Amino acid sequence: MYEIKIDDSLYQTYPEIRLGCMQMTVTVTASDTQFWKYLDDEVLPKVRENIEGREWGEIPGVKGSRLAYKAFGRNPGRYRVSSEALLRRVRRGDELYHVNSVVDVNNLISVTSGLSVGSYDLAHIKGTVTLRKAGPGEGYQGIGKDFLDMENMLVLADEEGIFGSSMSDSRRAMVTETAKEILVVVYCFENGIDLEKVLSSGKEAFEKFAYAKEIKTWIVEK
Predict the structure, then answer these.
(1) Between the CA of residue 134 and those of 2, 77, 165, 177, what are the distances in Å?
(2) Distance between CA atoms of 125 and 92, rounded to whole angstroms?
(3) What pLDDT does residue 146 have?
(4) Where are the domains of the chain?
């Protein structure tokens, strides 16, 4: 299993920090018709019903992420956690993005759990991965975005710098159809979430819809 750590100093500011991790080998393919039929017919109607009429700060998963953003000095209304952004699309009835088999499953896990999920190509990650707070001037080029200012955000970093967060991931480690081995990180800032269950259902989804093999799951916490 890939070495992943959480900077201990983060717990002084916000105590409810865990990372759900999955490592697997994959054959990345284009978005699958069977997957989208399952998502549109079975998953999204239930998700939409569950979040209808609720404030974003009341929805499990989104709630903890918003509180963590505030604790570290970022405005969750302006810098939106990725799971909330997806759920806003679901509530409006907008279609989710079709990217590839891995990212599609990512989004499935995110909308059903309320937690942000990032997938990273391990070929582009060097050394130990640490969740830490980004300093002044730190940022990266986001996927489909310009440079993102990540100061005070909780970010994943390796020996080459920061590459992921619960808001938006970088182009450097993004999963494309050339990826062979990936790391999936579920960002959890809420102790009431059953993270083991999220990982278990996520493992099944990756096996079924992304043809993933040799999946290892574990939780990083204090």
Answers:
(1) 22, 19, 10, 29
(2) 36
(3) 80
(4) 4-220
Round to whole Å and give the CA distance between 112 and 205.
Answer: 12
What is the structure's pLDDT at 195?
A: 98
CA separation for the pair 117, 57 (Å, rounded) = 18
Placement of tokens 């990217």 in the chain? 99
Three-state secondary structure string covering the chain: CCCEEECCCHHHHCCCCEEEEEEEECCCCCCCHHHHHHHHHHHHHHHHHHHCCCCHHHCCCHHHHHHHHHHCCCCCCCCCCHHHHHHHHHHHCCCCCCCCHHHHHHHHHHHHHCCEEEEEEHHHCCCCEEEEECCCCCEEEECCCCEEECCCCEEEEECCEEEEECCCCECCCCCCCCCCEEEEEEEECCCCCCHHHHHHHHHHHHHHHCCCEEEEEEEECC
Q: Does domain 4-220 have CATH number 1.20.1640.10?
A: no
Q: Mean pLDDT of successive 10-residue segments in the chain (222 residues)?
A: 97 98 96 93 97 96 97 89 96 93 97 98 98 95 86 96 94 95 98 98 96 97 95
Compute the distance between CA of residue 112 and CA of residue 47 in angstroms, rounded to an integer.
6
